[in-house]
Structures
1.
Amino acid sequence: MKFAEIKGNAAACRALAGMVDSGRVPHAILFHEDDGGGGVALALAFLQYLYCKDKADGDSCGACAACNKISKLIHPDVHFIFPLVLSAGESVSEQYAKQWRELVISNPDFTETELYEALGFEGKNTVIGVKEANALLRKLSQYSLEGGYTSVLVYLPEKMNTTTANKLLKILEEPPQQTVFILVTHSPERLLPTISSRCQLVRVESSSPNDSLALRYDDGGLFASLMESLLDRNLSGALEVGEQLASLPSRDSAKAFCKFASEKMRRVFLVQQGLDSLAGDDPDAVSWAGRLRNTFPRKALEAFDRSSALIGRNVNLKILFTDLVGRLYSII
């Protein structure tokens, strides 16, 4: 993957090439993409430029041995980590390398759902477990096989459990020499602040404005009604919205609503942090940001994540959305 193959993001491509050219490569870069927004593709273009032996004019050559290995996702010094369904033995990403390679090579702008379909994890709860962190520590304790940089690409680091996140934090605090961590996230607000603060942020712009897959979902105004009821401390009104959510036509629709609501909360968080430009043109987010406590978006995201996971476990939707409304009301 060359920078020339990346859709848009010309400024980001120039900045990433400049890091390599100047010899000032950060030890950790956080690529923030919308779901399916091309963050992995941009990360791979950066890695190919980093390892390329014949780079020129701000791009990799695409022909040398290093470029060939990166493009096929088989470079021995580049490691990939992504969320899995943990079995009794707690799997690691390396066991699914074949499926990962096939998906990324055929569709580098894949969505989270497409990853889980490729891995056979549809409708299941996924996480990046502690065994993954332990395996990574062993790999980083060794010298790079081809000399030069060792790189780790973590897709959806917000899926790390607490133990895994803390282990990664320790590595980021004292990174081995010539080691680069690339984190590709949909929700930077869900990362430990101590992790995100140690990363150079790169916002991956979608090919069209407001191109978040989550926001393409039409909720019929239900989320706005829920938020206004919560802000007015109108529990009865909020529960009525919960009843309507429980009557959605399918469990997939219910999951899509939770994803839509999570994206809206992510935008509220960004506005509250003064990052309006990253939140897109979203009047709702701007309005709610000024009326909500700064702690609400993070806690609400946890509630929506929990509900989405329970939907996949066939929990009764009426009970689930009543519980969700109660949780949101308690933290508003």
2.
Amino acid sequence: MRPSGFRCHFNLRMRHTARPNQPEGPRVSSSDAKNPVKHLSGKELHKLLDRYRVTDGKGFRLKDWDPDDTAGRLIDKAHATALLNGGVEHLATLQEKLYAQDRWSVLCVFQAMDAAGKDGTIKHVLSGVNPQGVTVTSFKAPSPEELKHDFLWRAARALPERGRIGIFNRSHYEETLVVRVHPELLDKQHLPPELNGKKVWDRRLGAIAGFEQYLADQGTVILKFFLHISKDEQKRRFLERLDDKAKNWKFSTADLRERAYWDNYQHVYEQAIAATATPHAPWFVVPSDNKWFTRLVVVCAIVDALDRLDLRPRDLTADETAALAAARTKLMDE
């Protein structure tokens, strides 16, 4: 079924600078120029998402993606708030249908450098949904119990059940990112020495790709978001956290230590995305120097994916229909 998308208003400007080798954003016709406020159609929504979606890692280079991109400035920040609110509202409706149908589950994976806005994006995008239908799991350093198991064990335990949305704030990908940047962490994972070699990263990325294929085959919709922030913007946000007493708690000296490995992290993220981007488990490389745009792209991607499922309550069995009729009769006879 053709996805309906959600409709909202944009202020479309006459400027457009697409990233090389990526689909262009919505074009402005002469009639649109006279009336700058218009609807975002389903087709235009898909063009927006195609700009940041990666379904094939062949030739992927992270340096080709601009962290400060805002779809060629076609989306005016002043109108983005209305679109974000509309998306959040529509997501709440879709989540109810997802729960009622009880057939699909949704897994959203968020990965990013520090200060890229994962927590704020999750908070804003999910602000309208029923908390009973969403589970957010934040993956910290593995516990002693988790280190005794395979690296996918704790992720598998946190997967959403049918009818629910699962959010991974960091994820199983950390085992191919921070552990790859700091390979000494492998020593704590009790791997047999003969398995702890140069090929361990390729094997892990292959295992993740197989894991995600398995989940997709079982009815889990997988959306992976890399919130792509520039080094300059990260510095600005770090300084803001240091200068604002109300934000001091957000700063960790560990974040500054990891910043020293910036180039290493860019490399391992590039490798991870290239190895695991597929049509059934796409990555979205979301520009994150502008928080408002980050949140907008994420909510659009989730809404679009749910719209494609043609969600509706499941059909009742004959016995269930009869039970409802009997309940109605009993109530009416009171």
